[in-house]
Amino acid sequence: MTRVLVVDDEPQIVRALVINLKARKYEVDAAADGAQALELAAARHPDVVVLDLGLPDMDGVEVIKGLRGWTRVPILVLSARHSSDEKVEALDAGADDYVTKPFGMDELLARLRAAVRRAEPAAGAGGDEVVVETEDFTVDLAAKKAVREGRDVRLTPTEWHLLEVLVRNGGKLVSQKQLLQEVWGPSYGTETNYLRVYMAQLRRKLEADPSHPRHFITEPGMGYRFER
Amino acid sequence: MTRVLVVDDEPQIVRALVINLKARKYEVDAAADGAQALELAAARHPDVVVLDLGLPDMDGVEVIKGLRGWTRVPILVLSARHSSDEKVEALDAGADDYVTKPFGMDELLARLRAAVRRAEPAAGAGGDEVVVETEDFTVDLAAKKAVREGRDVRLTPTEWHLLEVLVRNGGKLVSQKQLLQEVWGPSYGTETNYLRVYMAQLRRKLEADPSHPRHFITEPGMGYRFER
DNA sequence: CGGCGGCGTCAAGGGTGCGTCAGGGATGGC
DNA sequence: GCCATCCCTGACGCACCCTTGACGCCGCCG
Question: What does pTM read for this prediction?
Answer without folding.
Answer: 0.79
